[in-house]
Specification:
It is a single chain. It is built from 20 helices and 25 strands. The strands form 4 sheets. It has an 11-stranded mixed sheet with strand order 14-13-23-22-21-15-20-19-16-18-17. With 569 residues, the chain is of the alpha/beta class. The two termini are 42 Å apart. The protein is elongated.
């Protein structure tokens, strides 16, 4: 379930002439019975609201006085979210002849045409107040207070994300709170400015329009609606001057490419955009590559497995994003550990709508070909997925059948695309067999069978330091090792991490060292296997400097490696 809460304005939206029809109240009750939450967001003062709407108890929270007061009907707790304007302001308005003046816990309100007198008073008294208009109403509140700020507080109390919220309104003062809802709806009688900005406009006015919205939510969670806002799209990159994007909800992306092809750069940039938009993200990290990812808590390390209790305590906060580091879980135990974790994550997503995105790095380790979901943890998944792997054929078919978009970076894109298509038993699109240059990806959108053969990816603005353990101390596969062989192939020395490379580089004979240096083998390995373009660039400059002798070039390359991988953080 994606939309777990509905936030509604009162006058002109739920109510007609201040009254809510019984059939609308019945629709609100059905909505509550589905397990969802209701929030009322109104400019009215609480005593006035309670006098005209006896069924206020249907709502989990009421944001009153245009965002200045938070009220919980079940306990009758009331919290003032700002201070009321000073008495001298109210006295000054009376002296200016402002009629119809209403003073609430925080709000001070009147009617058109007294807005000029109100603005003059604020200016002459030098007060930090602002005026909000709602049709004929003129409302005065402390600066920065509006329906959105009050709604944000209500969501925090409910531990809900705005990405699981639908908002509905009709007037100027509703624009602020609708802008923070994942789906914004205007009833048919809304002002033109609101209709223009809303994702959807109901066919019916006022309460009948809210009822229409509720029936849609109960029927299919709004899946049948085509939401027009670009805010529901996540940019992947650019091609031919156009943005290439992915639906933020319901997308399952497979990212493929050999080591050094740019997968980590793609993931880092994508994750950054998820965080910018407030989507809660959980990244499963089998190899400890992302333990210092900005904006994330890391659970688990090389000495201990992640704690389920800690994971779900952290995820209870909508703003928390997690890296779940599995380096402390033994390799054979990782698939069953992950299966249990995934089942619990999907259960949480079913009832809380988050985490919104689950990113599974090294998916072939956690979802191997023989793995199949024992229940609904994959087939019934409620979270958007990104699966990251080298070869699709090494990933469970159950997981691959969820994929609706494939992104490929690095070498042999045509072969990888054919490999995936074979596992899905579909015909792949035609694509060049040429390797993709750094910073490019080929993307295939399966639902529309659209291929983007050359997309410029969007790297993260803050460069992520590469994880030291994997490349400084870990064991790379034999085919990824650097081999010191020399000009005649007499040597046969493998370096499967950077520490070993440094050790052998210091002891290898000059002929062998210079042979690989002149062939640019070092920079190629740093770029294509280690995946560190900056290190590769520095090594490339050293390789091209023919004035350097063997000792000088060894020393400079060693310093470049040590600065990035072995120096203190």
């Amino acid at each position: 379930m994606r939309y777990l809460a509905l936030a509604s304005d009162y006058d002109g939206t739920l109510a007609h002439d201040g009254v809510v029809d019984q059939q609308i109240s019945a629709a609100l009750k059905r909505f509550r019975q589905s397990g969802r939450k209701l929030i009322l967001v109104t400019g009215r003062e609480l005593p006035d609201l309670e006098s005209v709407f006896p069924e206020l108890h249907l709502f989990d929270f009421v944001v009153a006085e245009n965002g200045a007061v938070l009220f919980k009907p079940s306990t009758r707790e009331k919290h003032l979210l700002a201070e009321r304007p000073p008495d001298r302001f109210i006295d000054d308005l009376k002296q200016r002849g402002v009629e119809g003046l209403s003073v609430g816990d925080v709000i001070v309100a009147t009617w058109h045409p007294h807005e000029t007198a109100v603005l003059n008073s604020i200016r002459q008294l030098g007060l930090d107040l602002h005026v909000i208009f709602n049709k004929e109403a003129v409302m005065v509140l402390p600066s920065g207070v509006n329906k959105m700020t009050g709604l944000t507080r209500a969501l925090s109390e409910l531990k809900l994300s705005r990405h699981n919220l639908v908002g509905v309104g009709d007037a100027e003062n509703d624009l602020a709170f609708l802008s923070c809802c994942e789906c914004s709806v205007g009833v048919a009688n809304s002002i033109p400015a609101l209709k223009e900005k809303a994702d959807w406009v109901t066919a019916q006015p006022r309460g009948a329009g809210v009822q229409e919205l509720i029936e849609r939510l109960l029927a299919d969670d709004l899946q049948s609606l085509s939401l027009k806002s670009r805010s529901h799209q996540l940019p992947l990159g650019h091609a031919d001057g156009a943005e290439i994007s992915l639906n933020a909800c319901g997308s399952n992306l497979l990212l493929c490419g050999q080591s050094g092809g740019g997968k980590s750069t793609f993931v880092a940039g994508f994750v950054e955009r998820l965080l910018e938009r407030g989507y809660q993200t959980c990244l499963i990290d089998p190899e400890g590559d992302y333990e210092n990812l900005a904006g994330f808590f890391t659970v688990g390390d090389e000495n201990r497995a992640p704690s389920f209790e800690q994971i779900f305590q952290l995820l209870d906060g909508p703003e928390s994003n997690l890296v779940i580091n599995l380096i402390g879980v033994k390799l054979p135990d990782r698939p069953p550990f992950f299966a249990s974790l995934l089942s619990k994550l999907q259960e949480k997503a079913l009832f809380q709508g988050r985490p919104h995105w689950l990113i599974i790095d090294e998916a072939h380790h956690l979802l191997p070909p023989e793995w199949g979901p024992a229940s609904s943890e994959i087939a019934g998944q409620a979270t958007s997925l990104m699966l990251v792997t080298v070869h699709p054929e090494h990933v469970s078919p159950a997981a691959l059948h969820l994929v609706n978009a494939v992104a490929i970076v690095g070498k042999e894109p045509a072969a990888i695309l054919r490999e995936f298509a074979g596992k899905r038993d579909v015909e792949p699109p035609q694509i060049s067999s040429d390797d993709l240059p750094a910073g490019e990806a080929a993307v295939w959108f399966l639902d529309s069978n659209r291929l983007v053969p050359h997309m410029q990816t969007i790297p993260g603005s803050a460069e992520r330091k590469r994880h030291r353990r994997k490349y400084a101390e870990g064991e790379l596969a034999e085919e990824l090792a650097f081999w010191f062989r020399g000009p005649e192939g007499k040597q046969h020395l493998a370096t499967r991490n950077l520490n070993t490379f440094l050790l052998l580089a210091r002891g290898i004979d000059d002929e062998t060292w210079l042979y690989h240096l002149r062939r640019a083998d070092y920079s190629n390995w740093f770029a294509n296997v280690i995946g560190d373009e900056e290190l590769a660039g520095e090594a490339g400059a050293i390789e091209q400097d023919r004035s350097l002798n063997s000792a000088e070039s060894r020393n400079r390359i060693a310093k470049a490696i040590e600065a990035r991988y072995t120096a203190p953080a």
